[in-house]
């Protein structure tokens, strides 16, 4: 009976050491933070030296005379337009260009890249069907 108790205790204690170390588990002075980068370096004698090139700079456009506000109220009425589908996007953007080229006689079925068609997905961050499925 003593062996099983010690085994269970060892498993529990090992699992406790594997749990993430948060500010609730550390002393009162421990502050984990949120991963913000320091705008400088800490020297060996614990002195912080601020480096101006490491300080983030926010570039904000001039909003003088801008009428829109950055907040949208929850009481705002929902939009009256339904979300755009792929077929609507094709008929509104690509189809008129293809029709114009067909009428002018300049349509080439081998040069569809001109209309936004991409035959391969090589080099794309998110590749489309069928390469995104697990093999």
Verbal overview:
Helix content is 27%, strand content 4%. It is built from two helices and two strands; from the N terminus they run αββα. It has helices spanning 2-18, 86-104, and strands spanning 40-42, 48-50. It starts with a helix and ends in a 31-residue tail after the last helix. The protein has 135 residues and is mainly alpha-helical. Strands 1-2 form a two-stranded antiparallel sheet.
Q: List unreliable stretches of 5+ residues.
A: none
**Gyration radius, to the nearest Å?**
30 Å
Terminal CA distance reads 49 Å
Count of separate DSSP helical elements: 2
Largest sheet: 2 strands, antiparallel
Q: Briefly note the structural class of the backbone.
A: mainly alpha
Instruction: Note the overall shape.
Output: elongated
Q: Could you tell me the number of beta strands?
A: 2
Order of helices and strands: HEEH
Helix content: 25-40%
Strand arrangement within the widest β-sheet reads 1-2
Mean pLDDT: 80
Strand content: under 5%
